[in-house]
Design a protein that fits this description.
mainly beta, 6-stranded antiparallel barrel, 5 helices, 24 strands, Thrombin, subunit H, flat, about 350 residues
Length: about 350
C-alpha cells in the first residue's frame, strides 16, 4: 500500500513539474490555425470513437493534439479517454486548450477482495469501461499481436516443419506435425512463414524479414532433434518448411496519442500489405524508418507522392518533378529499423516508393 501511494505521489509530482516548467508552444500561430472552424465547443465520447476521430473534430491537424492538451491533476491517468467523458475546447491566455471532464465510465470502481482475512485489505481500482483506442483495432489487430519483423538469420536458424502426421503436406488446427529442431515440452510456439525481405532502397541495408503469422502450436514431445507439435489454431494452412518461433509476450498498446516526431524524419514506403499495388486510406504499409530514427507508436508522418521523371524537351535531358503532399499515415508498431503504419487519409493513389516526411 505504501509503495502504491508513493508511486501515485511521484506521478502527480511529475505531471505538476510538466505543467509548471513547460515552455510556450513552439509555434502558437500554427496551433491556432489548426483549430477547425466548425469545431464543437464540447464533445461527449461514445463507444466506437477513436482518438484520431475525436482529434479531427477539433483540429485540422490531429497530430497537434498533445500541443493543446491541458493536464488535469485531479484526474487519474488524464491521457486515457473513456466513453462518457466530455472534451471542451477553451482558451487560456489566448491559447487554445482541450480540457477533460471525466464521465461515469472513466471513474474507478473500488473493489475489496471477497473473503479476505487481511487486517488491511488492498483496494483494487478499475475503470468501468476500456479507454478508447487511437485507431480502430480491427484494422491493425493482427499486426499488433501476430506478424513481426526479425533479423533474417533468426528465421534461417529457427526450427521448421518437416512433415505432418500421416505424411500430410497441408495441415490445420487439431493436426499434429513434426519439427526439425529442439522445442520445450508443453510450451506454446508461433508458426510463421518467411515473408518479404525488407531492404532500404536508399542505402541497400537489410532492415529485416517479415515473419508472417500462420498459427499457434504446443510442443508435446521431443526425440533427439525432432519435436512433435499439436496445432492449436491457424490463420491459414501450415506447410512443410514453415518456421517455429517462441511466442511473443507483448502488451498491445492502443491508446497512444497522435503526435509529430521530435526529430526530422525522411524515408519511403517500402511495402504494402493486402496484395495491392496502389495504396489508399486504411491500408497498412511498411516504412524504412524505425525506433533508431526516433519513431514511436502514434507518430504521424506526411506522405508525398513521388514526382515523375520527365524529359525536358528544351534542354534534352531527364528531370525529376517535385514530390507533392498526398496524405497522412500513423505509426502503430515501430521496430528497430522499420515500422508498420496505417494510412489515415490520401487524396490520390499512393505507391511503394512514395516519400514520408514530418507533417
Amino acid at each position: 500500500m505504501i509503495e502504491k501511494v508513493r508511486k501515485r505521489l511521484l506521478t502527480r509530482m511529475f505531471l505538476l513539474m510538466a505543467v509548471c516548467f513547460s515552455l510556450p508552444l513552439a509555434n502558437a500561430d500554427a496551433v491556432s490555425e489548426a483549430i477547425n472552424a466548425e469545431h464543437p465547443k464540447t464533445y461527449t465520447v461514445v463507444k466506437g470513437d477513436t482518438l484520431w476521430d475525436i482529434s479531427a473534430r477539433f483540429l485540422s491537424k490531429p497530430w497537434l493534439w498533445p500541443e493543446i492538451w491541458q493536464i488535469n491533476l485531479q484526474i487519474e491517468n488524464p491521457h486515457l479517454i473513456y466513453p462518457g467523458d466530455t472534451i471542451s475546447l477553451v482558451y487560456v491566455d489566448g491559447q487554445p486548450r482541450l480540457r477533460l471532464q471525466r464521465g461515469l465510465a472513466g471513474r474507478t470502481l473500488k473493489l475489496k477482495p471477497a473473503g479476505t482475512k487481511s487486517i488491511r485489505p488492498e483496494i483494487r481500482e478499475v475503470p468501468l469501461e476500456l479507454a478508447i483506442p487511437t485507431l480502430r483495432l480491427d484494422q491493425i489487430a493482427g499486426f499488433l499481436v501476430q506478424n513481426r519483423v526479425v533479423e533474417p538469420r533468426v528465421l534461417e536458424a529457427a526450427p521448421y516443419v518437416v512433415q505432418g502426421e500421416a505424411e500430410r503436406l497441408v495441415l490445420g488446427a487439431g493436426d499434429r506435425l513434426y519439427v526439425r529442431g529442439v522445442l520445450q515440452d508443453n510450451e506454446a510456439y508461433s508458426l510463421v512463414r518467411r515473408g518479404p525481405r525488407y531492404v532500404d532502397p536508399q542505402t541497400g541495408e537489410v532492415l529485416g524479414r517479415e515473419a508472417t503469422y500462420i498459427g499457434l502450436g504446443r510442443a508435446v514431445a521431443q526425440a533427439l532433434r525432432v519435436a512433435t507439435l499439436n496445432i492449436v489454431s491457424t490463420r491459414e494452412e501450415v506447410r512443410i518448411g514453415d518456421r517455429v518461433l517462441p511466442t511473443e509476450e507483448r502488451r498491445v498498446q492502443a491508446n497512444f496519442f497522435p503526435s509529430a516526431p521530435d526529430s526530422a524524419v525522411a524515408g519511403e514506403l517500402i511495402s504494402v500489405f493486402s496484395g495491392v499495388t496502389q495504396v489508399g486510406q486504411y491500408d497498412v504499409v511498411v516504412i524504412n524508418r524505425g525506433a533508431r530514427e526516433g519513431l514511436d507508436n502514434g507518430h504521424v508522418l506526411a506522405i508525398y507522392k513521388k514526382g515523375a521523371a520527365v524529359r525536358d524537351m528544351i534542354a534534352n535531358e531527364m528531370i525529376q518533378l517535385p514530390s507533392e503532399r498526398a496524405g497522412l499515415l500513423m505509426v502503430f508498431r515501430a521496430f528497430e529499423k522499420l515500422s508498420y503504419a496505417l494510412v489515415m487519409n490520401s487524396d490520390r493513389p499512393l505507391a511503394v516508393g512514395d516519400e514520408i516526411r514530418n507533417p
